[in-house]
């Protein structure tokens, strides 16, 4: 194998690994943003928060359609 093919293979593999790492990081950030939003809505508007939870529990088919 010549150096060009090896270099291309290493570059390709590093691009894949960087993409996986970037995607994983974005997923973790989104999870924490969601948890923070959940905590804020639980504290600031707990009545409507629990009404929404009850709606999800009592209407699972409708919920599945919109998810």
What does it look like?
It contains three helices and no strands. The relative contact order is 0.05. Helix 1 crosses helix 2. It has one domain. It is elongated, with a radius of gyration of 22 Å. The termini are far apart. The model has no long low-confidence stretch (mean pLDDT 92). It is an all-alpha fold.
* Stretches with pLDDT under 50, minimum 5 residues: none
Q: Based on CA inertia axes, which overall geometry fits?
A: elongated
* Series of secondary-structure elements, N-terminal to C-terminal: HHH
User: How many structural domains?
Assistant: 1
- Quickly give the structural class: mainly alpha
Q: What's the helix count?
A: 3
What about the largest sheet?
Answer: none
Estimate percent helicity: over 70%
Mean pLDDT: 92
The total of beta strands comes to 0
Task: Indicate the radius of gyration in whole angstroms.
Answer: 22 Å
Distance between the termini: 50 Å
Fraction of residues in β-strands: under 5%
């Amino acid at each position: 194998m010549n150096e060009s093919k090896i270099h291309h293979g290493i570059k390709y593999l590093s691009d894949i690994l960087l993409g996986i790492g970037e995607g994983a990081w974005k997923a973790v950030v989104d999870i924490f943003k969601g948890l923070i939003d959940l905590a804020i809505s639980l504290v600031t508007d707990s009545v409507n928060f629990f009404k929404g939870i009850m709606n999800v529990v009592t209407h699972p088919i409708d919920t599945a359609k919109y998810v």
